[in-house]
Amino acid sequence: MGHDHHHHSRNRQLSRKLIIATTATALFVVAQLIAGYASNSLALIGDAIHNVTDTFALLLAFAAVRLQRRPATREKSYGYHRAGILAAFVNAATLAALTVFLFIEAFNRFRYPAVVNDVAMLITAAAGIVLNVAITFSLRREGRHDVNIRSAVMHMLGDAVSSVGIVIAAILIRTTGVQQWDAGISVLIGILILWSSWGILKESVNLLLEGTPSGIDPATVTQSLGTIPGILGIHHLHIWALGPSMPALSAHLMVGDVPVKSTGRILDEVNALLLRDYNIAHTTIQFEFATCAEDDPYCVSFNVEVGTSQDR
């Protein structure tokens, strides 16, 4: 009960942070678009587009957090935890797609330079740095353990760096008089957006395809389980994620010809080890009262005496 109360309290706190961040970002988008068109700066307009996706990212993150709090149903026995992974995928894919527009506009600006108001660029970008850094720091702790929040944090961090680039472009335009610095920085912003979104896109696709979460090595998990007395072999080991930072595991454990009641102790030790070492709290374990068959390529048998394993 205490753990559930702490979890819900943490979710409510995170929801408040996301609401504040979304509101502040949306208001800044309006100001940045006005400044971008008034100053004729493609870099500012491009960064405003980035901020639009930031607002969308924060809204998706907020929606995912609320969905994840909904209880499981008969039809959705795992609940709505996968909503966070789906939100991360949509965020990253949208961000990557919008860079195409930025690259096309930058190319046109290289061919046909436009006069830019560097003072408006400088002031607006400086405000953007303050806003995005503040939001990034407020969500950084939650982002370490949740790919959904981490995708939103990467949006904000990327936009902070983009704003730094705009400040540099404004200074270079003012000191050199070369208007193409605006388009050049826009290209760099697009590259940064692609780089920041790629890791999140790759991880979210992996989790949506039931891949093993990053940071967990199935071979290492197998070796760890082999150290528990009574386990003679393992096969059909699967590790996936129910949602952000919620890994799950299923496996068949070979225990030989032993009484059924003796498996209770083994199950307790298995669950304790998985939770302690790999943060895996959801497990489905099937005991098999046999050893690995000689022709089973998916079974790993253990030498109980020396604690080593051998792939069959």
Describe this structure as you would to a colleague.
- The chain has 312 residues and is α+β, with helices and mostly antiparallel strands.
- It folds into two domains: 2-208, Cation efflux protein transmembrane domain (Alpha-lytic protease prodomain-like); 218-311, Alpha-Beta Plaits, CATH 3.30.70.1350.
- The protein is 65% helix and 12% strand.
- The chain has eight helices and five strands.
- It has helices spanning 2-39, 42-68, 82-111, 118-143, 147-176, 180-208, 218-225, 263-278, and strands spanning 233-243, 246-254, 282-288, 299-303, 308-311.
- Strands 3-2-1-4-5 form a five-stranded mixed sheet.
How are the SSEs placed, and which strands pair?
Blueprint: H1 2-39, H2 42-68, H3 82-111, H4 118-143, H5 147-176, H6 180-208, H7 218-225, E1 233-243, E2 246-254, H8 263-278, E3 282-288, E4 299-303, E5 308-311
Parallel strand pairs: 2-3
Antiparallel strand pairs: 1-2, 1-4, 4-5
Helix pairs in contact: 1-2, 1-4, 2-3, 2-5, 2-6, 3-5, 3-6, 4-5, 5-6
Compact overview of the structure:
The chain is an alpha+beta fold. It contains 8 helices and 5 strands.
Features:
single chain; 312 residues; alpha+beta; Alpha-lytic protease prodomain-like; Alpha-Beta Plaits; five-stranded mixed beta sheet; 8 helices
* CATH class type of the largest domain: Mainly Alpha
CATH homologous superfamily caption of the largest domain: Cation efflux protein transmembrane domain
Largest sheet: 5 strands, mixed
Taking all residues together, what is the mean pLDDT? 79
Radius of gyration of CA atoms, rounded to a whole number = 25 Å
| Pattern of helices and strands | HHHHHHHEEHEEE
List low-confidence stretches.
Answer: 1-6, 305-309
- Strand coverage percent: 5-15%
Determine the number of helices (DSSP H or I, runs of at least 4 residues): 8
In CATH, the architecture of the largest domain is Up-down Bundle
CATH topology of the largest domain: Alpha-lytic protease prodomain-like
- Approximate shape: elongated
Instruction: Give the spatial strand order of the biggest sheet.
Output: 3-2-1-4-5
How many domains? The number is 2
| Broad structural category | alpha+beta
